[in-house]
Amino acid sequence: MAVYPGRPLERDRRMAEEREERMRKIAKEIEGSVVRKAAPDDTAAPAGRPLTRREIKIWEERERRREKERKKKEAHEARIAIRVQKNRDAAKHMNWGYMLFLSAAMFVAGFFLVKYVELRADVTARTKRIAVLENVCNDMKQKNDEHMNRINGSVNLEEIRRVAIYELGMQYAEQGQVVAYQENGSDYVRQYKEITGAEKK
Q: Are 188 and 166 in contact (CB under 8 A)?
């Protein structure tokens, strides 16, 4: 704020002259501008005449609003730029401990992934091997049953009886020749000597 020495009347006169000079400068700046031509109200003065105080106040109000919006937009863009710069700085300046932790985590994850793939491959191979062995076992069972049926079909019980009785002299057991013995859990008995003291049927 300017200081005017001297008497009060002279000071007021100088302030008034300065205010008028400032208003003339503002009028020259906005005279013929797009803002005044596109103004929706009737405050715009025709070309060739000075602006009124009301027109100057309206123009100053518009300029203040525009300046306020511009500053608000610049502040918002500055905040975004600061946040982006912080993120970039954080990405560039990761400490060695964090990088070491990430490397170790990736190594462990890769190790377990490789082991998992190996186990899956081993399980698949074993499953195929089991399927092959099952087919071989089924074929062997089928062949065994065929051989058993062929053997059973080739046995002639009457021929065996004839050979045992007439050629080998074997006879059916008579009464008193059957000896009872204590079973030992086996499905067959091998006799090495005469059985004595056994109960005869």
A: no
Backbone angles phi, psi at 179, to 5 degrees: -115, 125
Torsion sign across C-alpha atoms 16, 20, 23, 25? negative
Q: Look at phi and psi of residue 48 and say left if phi exceeds 0, alpha if psi is from -120 to 50, else beta.
A: left
pTM of the model: 0.34
Name residue 200's beta-bridge partners.
179
147 forms bridges with which residues in the sheet? none
Better-scored residue on pLDDT, 37 or 107 = 107
- Nearest 5°: the CA angle 25, 26, 32 is 105
Residue 109: pLDDT band (50, 70, 90) is: very high
Element (H, E) at 145: helix 96-154
- The structural domains of the chain, with segments of one domain joined by +, span 8-92, 95-171
Q: How does pLDDT run across 68-93, given as a tens digit for each residue? A: 898 888 888 888 988 888 877 776 66
pLDDT at 39: 44
What phi-psi label fits residue 2: left (phi over 0), alpha (psi between -120 and 50 degrees) or beta?
beta
